[in-house]
Predict the 3D structure of the following.
Amino acid sequence: MIYFKDGEYLREEQMNLSVNDRGYAFGDGVYEVIKVYDGVLYTANEHLERLLESAEKIKINLPYTLEQLIKITEELQQQNELSTGHIYLQVTRGVAPRVHQFPDQSVLPVVIGYTVENPRPIEQLESGAAMKSVDDMRWLRCDIKSLNLLGNVLAKQEAIESGCQEALFVREGIVREGSASNVFGIKEGVLYTHPANHFILNGITRRVVLQLASELSLPVVEKEFTLADAYAMDEFFFTSTNAEITPVVTIDGKSVGKGVPGQITRQLQNVFEAKIPVLVAAGQADERNTNGSAS
Ligand code: PSZ
């Protein structure tokens, strides 16, 4: 594995990180996960623009431009010959003695990156997932892709321990997002999702889905809805870079709709895949039909 660190491409044994890195001490940093399909980067620009935005929101001066970040991402894919998986990029406020306030201007951010080979979650995309609602105890800047993931970690663990695959954050009775995903419901042909504000991360996959909905002339309502509303949806799904569009078949043990992936969800999955040229070329984009059962 070749790692990127502060302008260099390094082998495992050349990599070293400080115990005084503010990412380690405080989770004082931001990150991105960028998908690669058959060696081709997917929505990398959007992810890297969001990385720049996240850094700016926590007042880290990232020492790279968007163009340089794209170059680093491409270089990591090539050096590691990453086929299907993702590229992880992380930026911390740098290395300095452990005090809460920012170090002085001379301390530079630490930027690292590496690749992870992992297949698409075909089985889960096909059969769907179970969600468990959990109290959203995170801070109020969920729009920042921060390294501070304690709330997300605890929620995911709670979901897993209940035999579910993903947690559903509820704050003030309102369904916000998943522990590592955005969520959507479909009721009477209308697609509902939480508005992009400080309560959620504005997912890149979320944005793709909204674009696809518009292309399909599927009406979209970006508005808060309750957990009771979620239970009553005809269809439900969550989205993320790795989970793509994952149908949700149960929430808190209650079946969503007929308890199988919904038709409109299937349609969105199909058009999502159809827009990934390498999947189409490899014949992977047509593995499922639209009537809710495996082909
Ligand atoms: O590997 C994984 O399971 C991944 S890759 C990205 C995520 C999980 N999660 C991103 C995320 C998130 O952490 C929260 C709290 N909300 C929404 C999302 C979805 O963002 P995108 O679509 O940009 O990955």
Observations:
- Residues 205 and 240 are 5 Å apart (CA to CA).
- Residues 44-57 form the longest helix (14 residues).
- The mean pLDDT is 96.
